[in-house]
């Protein structure tokens, strides 16, 4: 049996985790300004290659995204969701400049088909079969402004479409986002093709190209977080929904359950001999002429192996057929030249291999994960929606980290992107997320990262908006680390892993893994040690040839990458801490706790119990010889007046603007520097401009000690004259 890791596996670990909760510290207002930062001292637009797609379409070579000349394209992106996709022509250039300054080189356009926000569908119409010309014009202009600055587009097709009466969709009011029915309903499949054709053959007057021929569109994504296999093991194919406008993860209506069961029986009739079909009826306990029922999850454990395998194969074939049909339509019928993503591997509590077996046949493989995604609840007293999160630090739980979860989805020979990830607000340890993600994504040599989400609202409303669980735009901690992460990831400061662990699965193993218990998460791979993705990279090489035997591993603490650049300390031997040590970027992230932490060129001694310190050169020289560096010092962020519940697992008051931060206070030392004549440490405000006020420095011939914390900031520009 392979090793499993859990935060609840040892009483000693529980005591340690309880002892590492965030202490009460005075919070200070610190707002990021997206409109007035044109002369910011931190401008990372040099990382971008403008205009996007200037030499032609991005393609796949050697299992990675490459430009026409063969140069690697790494994506450091963000999502724009709903109304955020349609800024005014006054705001679009300002937003595009703001993104470029932070090193963002791709925008994933998400929920273009939203029902709850501005969308491409005509508001007030009785159907979703015509596009709003005004909204298209706003989108066109924004895409053109992004392109000018070297920012690519990732266009999502079906995400949040709610069908209307005029669409001719059966029981349209009971479908919600209409997930999974696209895999077997031919009318809905036709509507998917129609919408894709309308949008992708639309001519953008500002870029002078149709979207199907626009090289700045790097990826087109077919459907979002949509798998019929997942719907099966989640009991969302039962036909029991009777609620109009249900939530995202609703069961299908009875009419669709009947249609799916009939299709399943037709498939069985084609697949099995009369004798085999009769045996199947006998096992299912139905008479001649009756439909063989589909299995529910309560029947999984007792189900005959052949019956379970056949039904799993049926759903997998539906998935594969849909993706192949849509890929062929986009590529052959309307001649889309961008790369195609099917959907993301997103449910890490269960196996993702039945889905990946289909999506990996397309151009790019994609994954989603969140560290402690909120669990939404209804307060029994007030009937208001609330939420709950564990609110613990990822550094204390490495083998369940976002890195380990995401690493299961990468497939050999295919680019791998992560189009949604975040440490959702108000997690008090969120400063750890982006720096660790940037470092380990580089180590795994993945092709793209998209934080979810930059914003949901129209820029005209941004000043008034409070962050929800996912908006990173107003958060000074996330935005600061987004800039530092852009440098590390796009410049590939962290070396790729020296060793790749190949994984192979038999077709039977892929199917039977559907009923494996969640305790085998996230890999569902017997014998595969969960420390491997923190030491080496890993890829799936086959979904129909395995399985592979994995050698037993002696896990040590800390876990050290095979490049020796990344080190992860974890309980119970130590409080969670990740260090990054390369020539151009170094970081200390986690429970620093007042002890001195020391790397080759970076030493930290701060009073904060938990924080993230990232030092990265801006001139591509090693830290020891750099003339200009970014120092990102972040801890907690929250809203003014925000109040937790007693257990600090939910909020009783979200608070108000502006956002406030826990200042990182103490000393940051730059060590082993080459000779220099003078040094400046410039504290920056939320617009990247000098705050003013002297920063205390202690200098020696080869080191500099910087007193951080006063004035309050999340980032410093360090200039060294040599």
Task: Give your account of this protein's structure.
The chain has 13 helices and 34 strands. The chain is α/β, with parallel strands linked by helices and 722 residues long. It folds into three domains: 25-245 and 315-490, Alpha-Beta Barrel (TIM Barrel), CATH 3.20.20; 501-554, no CATH class; 560-721, Chondroitinase Ac, Chain A, domain 3. Strands 4-5-6-9-10-11-14-15 form an eight-stranded parallel β-barrel, surrounded by six helices. The chain is globular and about 90 Å long.
Question: Layout of helices and strands, plus pairs?
Answer:
Layout: H1 11-19, E1 28-29, E2 59-61, E3 64-66, E4 75-81, H2 92-101, E5 106-110, H3 133-148, E6 152-158, H4 186-200, E7 203-204, E8 209-210, E9 217-223, H5 228-233, H6 254-271, H7 274-284, H8 305-333, E10 339-345, H9 353-359, E11 364-370, E12 375-378, E13 385-388, H10 402-407, E14 416-422, H11 433-443, E15 448-455, H12 476-490, E16 500-504, H13 507-512, E17 537-542, E18 559-560, E19 566-569, E20 577-581, E21 585-591, E22 597-598, E23 602-606, E24 610-617, E25 628-634, E26 637-640, E27 643-644, E28 651-653, E29 656-661, E30 666-670, E31 678-683, E32 697-699, E33 704-708, E34 715-721
Parallel strand pairs: 4-5, 4-15, 5-6, 6-9, 9-10, 10-11, 11-14, 14-15, 16-17
Antiparallel strand pairs: 1-29, 2-3, 7-8, 12-13, 18-19, 19-20, 20-21, 21-24, 22-23, 23-30, 24-25, 25-34, 26-29, 27-28, 30-33, 31-34, 32-33
Helix pairs in contact: 2-3, 4-8, 8-9, 11-12
